[in-house]
Design a protein that fits this description.
With 134 residues, the protein is of the alpha+beta class. It has helices at residues 2-20, 41-51, 95-111; strands at residues 23-31, 35-36, 39-40, 56-61, 64-67, 70-75, 86-94, 117-122.
């Protein structure tokens, strides 16, 4: 009983910190071939994020993986003609901004024929240095 209370107290603190984190990281796991209309999903997300003023977005392409988007393992092999690979779209900004962006994107994600996974986590930014213009 004491151990259960301790675990509950710790998990409550972690959950509370997650809810109150000022900055967050939004991650969308999908496939490189997923589309919104005629446009690649990850391109659509990056362009929409830029329009909405999200601080930063990076798309990572995996070399191998599986998930909700496919029932088999996808991998990058030199003899394959099509490269259906996992992608992760990662965005960092204020948590509230990311939540609002997700709610804007959610109807499009729900209408996609394939599956995907979306997470949001707190993040502590320790350096944010802007580059100079040349």
């Amino acid at each position: 009983m004491v151990l259960q209370r301790f675990i509950w107290a710790i998990s409550r603190q972690i959950f509370y910190k997650m809810e109150t984190s000022e900055n967050g990281i939004l991650k969308i796991y999908a496939s490189s071939t997923d589309k919104i209309g005629f446009k690649l999903f990850y391109e659509h997300v990056v362009q929409l994020a830029k329009e909405k003023g999200i601080s930063g977005v990076t798309v990572y392409r995996g070399i191998m993986g599986y998930g909700l988007s496919s029932s088999h393992i996808s991998s990058s092999r030199f003899w394959e003609l099509t490269e259906k690979l996992p992608v992760m779209i990662e965005m960092i900004d204020k948590t509230e901004t990311l939540e609002n962006f997700y709610h804007l994107l959610e109807p499009e994600i729900m209408n996609m024929p394939k599956g995907c996974l979306v997470t949001i986590e707190p993040v502590k930014i320790i350096l944010q240095k802007h580059g100079g213009k040349k």
